[in-house]
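Researcher: We plan to redesign the surface later, but first we want a full-length starting point. Tokens attached.
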């Protein structure tokens, strides 16, 4: 009998594998595959056949039956989707607002299909935003609406001014400018001339309405509100003194509600700048007569007093506020050279001009258009 020379227990005895008595399985030929972590929610097993595949394959028979982690959405991905959605919402809102704005602009600009036909409407005078409150801005806006009136009568020829109030050629002036005239010629600021006829007169208010023959598309003046003017307000006067068409002067309103008396007809010598040296238009104020005798037929009205320079030929022209609105029709002016007063009265600045308030004109306009004469 052969005996082992090794001490008992020096080498453990392993029964043959698979005989049912084995206490331990044999060691594997290779180490089990270990998962590789690449990022949150992603596990790569060697031999899986592609990055990002979660444990569907196994290596060397190991890994079968292991639970696979459910893919988790990346926090970064969730945050990234919110700005995209927000930008999309902003873009939609901007498109809607843009469409509404474009429609509104189109309507206000008159480019929409519902706009009125601008060819049949002539806008009144307006002073540009950059020129508001300046004499230059007012003169540029209103000068095209002021005309020179030449009246021929048995007494000769006289010159006055007028204001265009309709695109068809209605013109307001003083009654004393056209009283007794057998023919009337009107010259626009462009130099174009028209023949005019008398529509209506009101000698009591020293107003007259004439109409140009064959005129259309003329620029018109804007009639303002004389009830709101105050002493000290800056004003501009435009007319044709001594036949100098489109002359602009400026000043302030120096007084209100002056009782001015003027002649109603030609017996007072109404011609303005009459050829051959006629007298200036006479008027009476405070019991004194200026620029000659007013005669026996007179009328008195409340006038705006201004220190804007007025001269023969300014009668019937416009007194204008700094917004380019007509607030008065110039009607009388003091002339020191023809005054019957003492020599001392001619010294210093004159600064005495008078205008019929535009509200008086507006109240009388329908009567003048009806062809009434007084």
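Model: Full-length starting sequence:
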């Amino acid at each position: 009998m052969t005996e082992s020379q090794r001490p008992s227990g020096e080498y453990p005895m392993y029964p043959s594998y698979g005989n049912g008595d084995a206490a331990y399985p044999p060691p594997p030929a290779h180490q089990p595959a270990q998962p590789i972590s690449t990022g949150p929610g992603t596990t790569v097993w060697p031999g899986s056949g592609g990055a990002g595949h979660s444990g569907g394959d196994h290596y060397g028979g190991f890994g079968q039956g292991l639970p696979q982690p459910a893919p988790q959405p990346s926090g970064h991905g969730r945050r990234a989707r919110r700005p995209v959605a927000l930008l999309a919402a902003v873009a939609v809102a901007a498109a809607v607002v843009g469409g509404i704005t474009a429609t509104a602009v189109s309507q206000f600009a008159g480019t929409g299909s519902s706009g009125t036909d601008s060819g049949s409407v002539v806008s009144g005078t307006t002073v540009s935003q950059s020129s508001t409150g300046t004499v230059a801005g007012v003169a540029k806006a209103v000068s095209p609406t002021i005309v020179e009136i030449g009246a021929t009568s048995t007494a000769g020829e006289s010159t006055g001014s007028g204001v265009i109030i309709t695109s068809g050629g209605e013109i307001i002036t003083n009654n004393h400018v056209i009283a007794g005239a057998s023919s009337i010629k009107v010259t626009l600021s462009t130099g174009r001339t028209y023949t005019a006829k008398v529509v209506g007169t009101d000698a009591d208010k020293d107003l007259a309405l004439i109409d140009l023959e064959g005129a259309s598309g003329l620029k018109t003046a804007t009639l303002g509100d004389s009830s709101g003017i105050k002493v000290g307000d800056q004003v501009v006067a435009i007319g044709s003194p001594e036949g100098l068409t489109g002359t602009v002067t400026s000043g302030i309103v120096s007084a209100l509600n002056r009782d001015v008396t003027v002649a109603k007809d030609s017996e007072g010598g109404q011609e303005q700048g009459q050829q051959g040296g006629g007298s200036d238009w006479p008027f009476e104020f405070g019991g004194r007569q200026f620029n000659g005798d007013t005669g026996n037929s007179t009328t008195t009205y409340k006038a705006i007093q201004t220190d804007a320079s007025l001269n023969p030929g300014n009668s019937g022209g416009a007194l204008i506020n700094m917004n380019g609105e007509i607030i008065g029709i110039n009607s009388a002016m003091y002339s020191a050279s023809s005054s019957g007063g003492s020599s001392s009265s001619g010294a210093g600045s004159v600064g005495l001009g008078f205008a019929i308030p535009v509200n008086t004109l507006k109240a009388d306009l329908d009567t003048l258009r009806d062809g009434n004469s007084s």
